[in-house]
Input
Amino acid sequence: MTGTPDLLAEDLHGAARDPALGAIGFLNEVMSRYPEAISFAPGAPHPEFMRDIDTRALTDRFVDHLVAERGFTPDAAQRALYEYGPAQGLINDLVAEALGTDQGIRADPREIVITVGAQEALLLALRSLYPRSGGDDLFAIADPCYAGITGAARLLDIPVVPLREGESGLDLDHLAARCREAREQGRRIRACYVAPDFSNPGGARMPLAARHALLDLAEREDLLLVEDNAYGFTAPEDDGLPCLKALDRHRRVVHVGTFAKVGFPGARVGYAVADQRVQNGAEQRTLAEELAVLKTMTTVNTPPLAQAVIGGLLLEHGRSLTALGRPKAQRYRRNLDHLLEALDKHLGDDLPPGITVQRPAGGFFVRIDLPVPADLALLEVSAAEHGVLWTPMSQFSLTDRCDRQLRLSCSYLDPDQIEQGVKRLAAFLREEAVA
Amino acid sequence: MTGTPDLLAEDLHGAARDPALGAIGFLNEVMSRYPEAISFAPGAPHPEFMRDIDTRALTDRFVDHLVAERGFTPDAAQRALYEYGPAQGLINDLVAEALGTDQGIRADPREIVITVGAQEALLLALRSLYPRSGGDDLFAIADPCYAGITGAARLLDIPVVPLREGESGLDLDHLAARCREAREQGRRIRACYVAPDFSNPGGARMPLAARHALLDLAEREDLLLVEDNAYGFTAPEDDGLPCLKALDRHRRVVHVGTFAKVGFPGARVGYAVADQRVQNGAEQRTLAEELAVLKTMTTVNTPPLAQAVIGGLLLEHGRSLTALGRPKAQRYRRNLDHLLEALDKHLGDDLPPGITVQRPAGGFFVRIDLPVPADLALLEVSAAEHGVLWTPMSQFSLTDRCDRQLRLSCSYLDPDQIEQGVKRLAAFLREEAVA
Output
C-alpha cells in the first residue's frame, strides 16, 4: 500500500505501535518464512480440543436449564440466545456455582460479570479503578508479563510499574518498596496484576505462604489485586493451591478467569469476580455491577450464543470447571512432562555453561536462561539453521531483565513434535547460545 | 446490600455514573412496576425475528464457504470456529462484498474490522482518533444522540461538542461554527458522529445535498466523520439514499455498521469500514488494521462462533445485507405506518396546542414535541394513570434542548399493541401534556 497517507501514526493512539507488537509481528513473519520449523512459540490450546464441539446440543442443554431452573418460558429461553441480554451476563449462576465447588470462591451471581474473554474483564477492571487516564495512580505488574494486561493498561494510558518475579512469583519486597517509593512521590500503586499459578510467560507459581503474604501486603498498602487464573487448572490434582480470591478475607481481589483454556478460545467468554462493595451516595452495589455498566460502553453484552455454549459445557460437566478442564489439564501436564524429559535427555548431562532450565509444575510455559541475548537475531538463526522457534522473553518485558531468556510453550504440540523440537533446540543451544 | 463499603463510587471511573444511566435505570424500574403498560420505550428488534434461527445450518454453510472459497482444509475450517481467530475478523470478505453490492461502498477486506457489535467499533475508532484522553481534541455529536456513542466518549474521557439536529439531520452551519470556535481556542474538532438515516433517537434523515455538503465541510475543516448506519436498511426501497461512505471521495468517513438489526442482536457482530491510509514510518496500513491492533487489547477477537452464524446468514441471502434485512425492513415500515396512522386517527384532527408529531420515512422512532417538560415525573403519570410508556428525549441529550420531547419506538410491538398504545397515549397527551 502506497500513496498519500490520510493519517499519520503519531496522531493516533500509541497503543497500536507498542514495541512488543512489532516483535509479535516479526515472530509471526519468521514462522511464516520457516513453515517446516517446529515452533515452541504460540501458547495456543491443543487442536485436539478444537474439534467435535456439539454447539447445538450444548446450547439446547443451556436453554433447558433456563427453563427448568431460571424460570424462563421455553419461548423466552430461545429468544435469550438471539436478543440483547443483560450486560452483566447470562451464565453468572453457573459460573458462581462452579467457582464455589471447584475453587472455594464464594461469589453471588451479582458479584460476577461475564465478559468477552478475560481481556475485556481486565480492561473493565482497569477502567473502573483508574478513573483518570494518565493520572497519578500506578499499576504494578510482574515483569515479564502477559501482553494482554500491559496492552489494556497502555490503551487506557495507565502508568505501569514493573516488578521482579522469581520462581515463587511476584517479589513481594519489591512490591512493598515500590509502594513506599510511590507514596514518597505523592502517588500510589492502586492495583497489582498477579497470576499466582504458572504465570504467562514467567511460569512462576506462588507458594501458599506467599499468597497469604501478598494479601496481607495488599491490606496494609491499600492495594487491589487483579488475579488472573488462566493456568491454575493445569496444577497437578494432588497439588492444587487455593487461588488468592479463595483466601481473600477483605475483598482485596478482583479475580479474572477465562473459558479459553478449560473450554475453547473461540467462545471468547471470560469473567471477573468483583465482590467489592461500591458506595454510591446512599446506595451500594458490587464492583461487578459497576463493571457491567462500563461494559455497556465497550461491547454492550457478551454474545448470548457464546455464553449458552459455555453454559452447556458447564452443565455437561457437573457444573464444574475442574471436570470441564480435566482432560485438557491431563494433556497439558503430559506435554509439559514430555518437554522437561526431552530437555533432560538432550541437554541434561552436559548443559552448556550459563544455560539454566526452569522446571514448572504446571502451565504452558518453560523458561530457559541463556548466557547471550535471546533476541530476534538469535531467533532468526534458530529458525534458519536449526528449524526450531521460540519466543524471546523480552517481548513480554518492559525492562532489560529478560533479555537473555526465552520462552518455550508446549501446549499445542504433540509428543513427537516436542521430542524432535527439543533435539533441534539442544543443537541450537550448544552451537549458538555460547557466551 | 449494606455494610462497610470497600470502594467509593467517586474513586472509580465516572462513566458508570452518567446521569443518563440513572434515567435508564428509572425507566426500567417504571416498566417493571407497570407490567401491563404498553411500552413505546425500548428500541429492541421485533421478537418474531428472534426465533427459528438455525445456527447449526448457518454455521455449516459458513464452514463450507471457508473450504470452497477461502482455501481452508475441512479440518482447519472446523477449528476456525473454536480457536482464537484473526483480530481483524473472519467474515471481512463477505461483509466487503455485501457493502459493495448493496450500498456502493467499495472496501477491501483489509479496510474492514469485525467487532463485538457496533459499540466496539465506535470505541476503537474513538480510541485511535483521540490518542490523548482528556486532551484538547473535541468530538462533535448530534444532540440528542445515541447513548452508545456518548458512553464510549465518556469511557475514554473525550470531550464532546453537542450539535443541533433538525428534520434534515445535523445542523451543518452549527458544526462549521463550532469548528471555528474550537480553532479560535487553539483546539480542534477531530471527528463528528453522524447517523444520516433515521438517527436514534432524533429520527432525522439527511437529504442527498446535505450529505454532500457535510463531506465538503469535513474536507474543508479536516474532520473525520464517524458514520453509524444502523437504521439505513429501513428506508423505503424506492427511496434509498447513498450513505456517506458511498459518497466519500477523500476517505473522510469511518463507516460503522451492525448486524443487530438486519441479523439479530445476540450475535454481537458489527464492523467498521476504515480505509484511511495510516503512515507509520516507512510503512502504510489501513485504519482498519490499526483498529484491529487496538482490538487485541479490548476483546482479542470477535467470537468466531458468532461471526460464522452471521457469515452463514449473508451466504443464505445471496451475500446481500439488503436481502437479509428485507423482511425486517418491511415489518418495521409497517409498524411505523401503523404508528403514524394511529397517531393521526387518535390525535390528528384536534392535536392539543403545542404538540407536534414528527413523520419520519423510516427507522424505529417517532419524536413528539410537547408544551410541557417530558420528564420522569410525567412518565410516571403516563404509566400510572394511562398505562403507556415512552422515553424522555432528555435522556439522550447533553443539553436542555430536548426537555419537551419524547421518543416513541415501534420496532418490537404488534399492530394491535400500537393501536391500543396510541389510544392511551392520546388520552395521556390530552389530559396531562397541557401547558
